[in-house]
Known about the structure:
By secondary structure, the chain is an all-beta fold. It has strands spanning 4-7, 10-13, 18-24, 33-39, 46-52, 57-60, 68-72, 79-83, 92-103, 106-112, 116-121.
Amino acid sequence: QVQLVESGGGLVQAxxxxxxxCAPSGRTFSRNTVGWFRQAPGKERExxxxxxxxxxxxxxxxxxxxxxxxxGDNAKTTxxxxxxxxxxxDTAVYYCVADVVARYGVWxxxxxGQGTQVTVSS
Length: 122
């Protein structure tokens, strides 16, 4: 069982930055792919970003590309989501996920954290 713990959410103003962190319940991530999804009120969960910890390969949704950066520390103990130039439409619950793959063009994940709220005011 993979357990993920998110931190770093909060309330910010449009244009501000915020960094989310995700750590596994064990010492290191046991899965090679870790990422983030988000769910805004009244909307479905959507893919945000993913990183392959072994090769540092990253993927982003078009809505955050150029503003958000996903990264992981060398010890594979923490994955970060640096969010810059935040917009009110980025308001959502952000979930750390593991075992993230694209199936038939749709991103899916096998393991989910509890989520952390990000609110961006205009």
